Amino acid sequence: MASVVTLKQAAKVTGLSAHELRTGAKSGRYPHVRVGNSKRGKILFDIDLLNAHLKKSMEESVKTDEPQKTYGELRKIHG
After folding, report:
1. What does the alpha-carbon distance between residue 7 and residue 20 come to, in Å, rounded to a whole number?
2. What ranges do the domains of the chain cover?
3. pLDDT per position as a tens digit, 18-73
4. Which of 45, 47, 67, 69 is the most buried (most CB within 10 A)?
5. pLDDT over 60 (residue 74)
6. Which of 5, 16, 18, 19 is nearest to 49 (CA)?
7. How far are the Cα atoms of 7, 24, 49, 56, 58 from residue 62, in angstroms, in the given order?
């Protein structure tokens, strides 16, 4: 069964601030569900899904396919 937590609990578990989670949920960056009134309802997170999403985002941000830049080497400039 999924573990559903509130915004404050998700902030404690993930280490992200409540503000970051709130704005990220509003913009669609983080998977969430809003319960109650659409403006003032509670924001709930499936903590397993949120952690998987954060892990995937971190893995995508690290690009290992690109060759390492070699600093100090001269390169030909076409012009």
Report:
1. 10
2. 4-52
3. 999 999 999 999 999 999 987 788 999 999 999 999 999 998 888 766 666 677 77
4. 45
5. yes
6. 5
7. 27, 21, 20, 10, 7
Would you state the structure tokens that stand for residue 6, as one six-digit string? 């509130």
> Any bridge partners for residue 34, and if so which?
43
Backbone CA torsion sign across 34, 21, 25, 56: negative
Can you list the positions of beta strands (E) in the chain?
4-6, 33-35, 42-46
**Partner residues linked to 6 by β-bridges:** 44
Write down the pLDDT at residue 41: 86
- Label residue 20 left, alpha or beta by phi (over 0 means left) and psi (-120 to 50 means alpha): alpha
pLDDT score for 71: 76
